[in-house]
Design goal:
With 223 residues, this protein is an alpha+beta fold. It has three helices and six strands; from the N terminus they run αααββββββ. Mean pLDDT is 79; it is low at 1-13, 54-62 and 64-71.
Length: 223
């Protein structure tokens, strides 16, 4: 089909109103060879837009934001991590020192309890042997151990007990001490100036400072 322009065959009266509408969208006018006005306006607008985008902005109107000195720089993540690690280290160190102190106290308490338990065990054994030790002492006083077969056994038993701190005490002539002596008899005499042990009825037995049995004695007091 051949496009027909208005007025091509005698003016606008020749156009069929019911026929197709034909619009000429050519940028150049076929008669003058110049760019048509509507397309010239579009070209100028596009060129202005491109020029505005490419031109540098006015430095005076640029919002450069806060300067470096005005920045509120908070602690970085690395600094926070270091502070947290130091706090944990101090906490663990305090726990370790507390545990070490508790362990030292525990060791001291255990050593003290072990020593007390040992002393008690020795005291109980020797206390059970006191009747035997009294018999050995009486036999020695009466001369029954001299040259007898049991003399060496008695001496070995007493030497063994002495290694554990055992001691037999109480002699005539020593001063009376109510903390280690038990006075069964009292007398008076001008020959003494203080309370004095004049007879040992039963010797005393002790382990270190622990009295297993006080010496039972007769005491003479001054007039």
């Amino acid at each position: 089909m051949t496009d027909q322009l208005p007025g091509a065959n005698g003016g606008a009266g020749d156009v069929d109103p019911t026929g197709p509408v034909i619009r000429d969208r050519r940028k150049l006018d076929p008669k003058t060879g110049q760019v048509r006005e509507e397309f010239a306006h579009r070209h100028d607008a596009a060129a202005s837009s491109l020029a505005g985008a490419a031109s540098p902005a006015d430095p005076g109107s640029v919002d450069v934001g806060p300067t470096e000195g005005a920045l509120d720089v908070g602690p970085t993540d690395g600094a926070l991590d270091v502070a947290a690690a130091e706090a944990k280290t101090a906490e663990y160190l305090a726990d370790l020192q507390r545990l070490q102190a508790e362990y030292v106290n525990y060791r001291k308490r255990v050593d003290r309890d072990r020593f007390v338990a040992r002393e008690l065990a020795i005291a109980e054994v020797i206390e059970a042997l006191i009747p035997t030790l009294d018999e050995i002492d009486l036999a020695r006083q009466h001369g029954e151990l001299e040259g007898g077969p049991f003399a060496a056994i008695a001496e070995k038993l007493e030497a063994t007990l002495q290694r554990f701190g055992w001691e037999r005490y109480g002699t005539v002539g020593e001063g009376f001490d109510p903390t280690v002596h038990e006075a069964l008899m009292h007398g008076h005499s001008d020959e003494v100036t203080e309370s004095t042990v004049t007879q040992v009825l039963q010797p005393g037995h002790r382990v270190g400072d622990r009295i297993l049995r006080a010496a039972r004695v007769a005491v003479t007091d001054p007039e």
